[in-house]
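Collaboration report, partner site 2.

Our partner group contributed sequences for two proteins of shared interest, and the home lab folded both. The records are reproduced in the order in which they were received, starting with the first partner submission.
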Amino acid sequence: MNSILPMICWLLCGAMCSRIARKKNRNAHTWFLLGMFFGLIALTIIYFLKPLKILKSTQKSTPLSVLDHFSILKEDNNYWYYLDKENKNIGPMSLNALYKNYLKEAISNTTYVWNDTMDSWKKLQDISSLTKLIKKPTN
């Protein structure tokens, strides 16, 4: 009986510290142990501590459409070519490289592109599998 009472007090202090810590956005496991070892001192400290602010992620969440872009880029294993302003054939390159050129504005929606699965050269905007990747023309 003499050894049970201190253990109950230790567990009670640990549980109370843990509960207060959880409400203040602090690590409940750590405060449970601190409450068990330091008792009323830990309980007093956690009681007077300010709640931690929950930090929102500073990165912007990636929209689903961007994730779709990456899946399209990964699925394509063809070599792509495009015609520059002087109608010179530029390539071969991956679809990812072609898309990077599009983002750098080296090519546009009206640039003719081709790969070995196509019958003829087509404008970038006319390829149905790439319509998710390209921006809508602004007129």
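Second partner submission, folded after the first:
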Amino acid sequence: MTYDEETGVFTVTESDFEASNARVPALPDWVEGRQVARAEYHSLLQHLSRQSSATGDVPCNVKWSNAHRLDPTIGGKCIHFTAASEGDIFVVFAGIPQKHETWLYVQISPEGVALYKSMRVVTTQLLDGASSLGSSNLYQSYFVCVTEDTIGGVTIIQYGKTPDNEELPHVWLEFEIDEVLSLQYYAFGSGMYPVKVMGVSIIDQPAQYFIVCREGTPRKDNGRCSQQCHEECDGCRTTGSDSPTDCIACKHYSVGFPYIEGDSGSFTCVATCPEHMEPATETSKCTCIKQMEESGDGGTVTCVTECPLTHYDDGNVCKVCSTLCEDVSGRGTRVCTGPNSGDCSVCRYTTSDGGCLEGCSPGQKAVAQDEGGFRCDQCQPGHKCVRGDEMEEICPAGTHSSPERTSCLECAAGQFSSPGSQYCQDCPAGKYSANSGASTCTACPSGQYSSSSGSSSCQVCPAGQYSASAGSTSCQDCPAGQFSAMGGASSCDDCPAGQYSADAGSSSCQVCQPGQYSASTGSTSCQDCPAGQFSRVGAATRCNDCPAGQYSADAGSSGCEACAEGYTSEEGATECYDWDQCSPNPCENNGVCTDGVDSFTCACQGQYTGDRCQLACPAAWASHGTECFHLGESSGDYLRARGRCAATHNSLLAMPKDEATNTFIANLISSSQRPGGRYWIGLNDLQRDSAEWEDTSDDRWTWEDNTPLGWNNWKPGEPNGEHERCAMIIPYRDDWNDLVCTATNLYYVCQKSAE
């Protein structure tokens, strides 16, 4: 609810209703925008002044003393005092201080004055002049008089205060209690704030001799300041009140205010009971002659003299006739005499044969009759009759009437209906309805199908199949040469070049194998590469020619074979052929060429050598490969032989580093004029220190060109480590021997590269 501080009204706004309806869905719509309550601020004293008997504030810090005693039966006693407080000031009287039920006290507040008996309020005075100042620094003179009349059996309480500019105190509250309270003690108390009291005195002189009566307490003939109340009040709770609802008791009759059955709280005083009411037996309370069963706002009761024609009398309570009764009150006829349908003057509902019913059942329609009332007929197919009344509703599209015709049921998924249908129909093949309550069916989209009626969904065409149009009842296989890789295809794709599909319904294409190809899309098979061509990997879109020097003799080759040695071929060859490598003659210097298989040899003339006779040795030198060799004609030691080779065409001593060269040198010596002579070769260990001469290993021997010894042909047991540091080749043999380098009877062999 939304509160308006200016008016105090609580209103249910639109946002209030939405928030409340979310928590309480059954909240009726009419609540929105309504003013539902009104708040009014009252102080505690204002609230208590409207209650017949209520507990209010209780005094604190009450201290009793034998010094504070009084006897109000002898002409009355008045207590005068001066006090100040921000809050309440209490003047407390008691018969027995320890028993609260004997207390009588006056509450002096900034809001007004209240009188309590036995801890319950009996009267109040709320005029501004009667209240305290509400300040801890401003003092005010007060008095409270108590008179107990033992002959009359009453106790009279008077309260007042003395204005600053007057001598006589003013009475603001006077109340008479119909019993002698036997008060003997008095004390002061406080509320939330402390009370400062001074100048306390007791005056035995009756109050009427020295007081001035104020508002609400006019002086009577006996000199008292008594309450002024409404003329029907026998005493009022608020001094000076003119309201008949503020009475402590009534002089004649009382009526509940508001009148709520069983509530003995608030009432108003009247001279006579109002219309439709009468005094209750042996009491002065007014009660209803007859009352309506329905209560008003807050439970208030409506009184009547006679029950309306639409009600019947049930022990002076007017109760509404059954809704099964026809309302004939307009004819001046009472609708019913009791609560049952048999008590109706005219039945509201009848069977088709005229029998009386309590009402049409759900699934039936109430049909109005000329003579009044209704006949109950079965609700039409395709309609619903929910409450058994005159309302017959057509079932909307997407629903059908229940067998009892009490409701419209949604069509299940896979079904549909038009308005007013008794039954739902299955969706035909090729269509579906995914949700319940469908009024139409939807055609399956392309790429999907439904083969049977009553489908709530469509099936996806599997891979390898397709449906080209909406509303399909089946899928077609992709033709050979095409495929659909995923389900839900509306068309098939051609196999790409290099691939094929031989059968219908393919979900993928096969790759052409090595040696095959397909040049265009949509192929149903692959072709073999023709002879002379090849495809090395799969998925080929064309074949390649075999390169020159290779060939493929058969179709479907995944590679080409190299031509054998001495054979060759052109590009795209299916076979190889031999060719003459001596044409033109590759040999130089009149060398003679001999053709071989993929090779040729040159026979060199004279001193020429090399693969093509392109190199020449000096005259009288023998050639071996690209090297030239010459036998020296004189003898001498190793160093002399070295020097003579250096002087002869700047050559070195011969270095047979391999077996072929070693054999060539041995044969050259054998065919010379000195076949038995000994010859130095260019191998020594002259680098070795004298301390290492005993080492017979050959890892220190080096050739004349300073390359280390690799292949060797030492005679068994050689070198023998006897200070023989130079090598010779043995005659008639091709093995080696170590020899002292100073031996002089040896010839030598020189070596140089051909040029």
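Feedback sent to the partner group on the second submission included the following. Residues 659-670 form the longest helix (12 residues). The chain has a mean pLDDT of 85.
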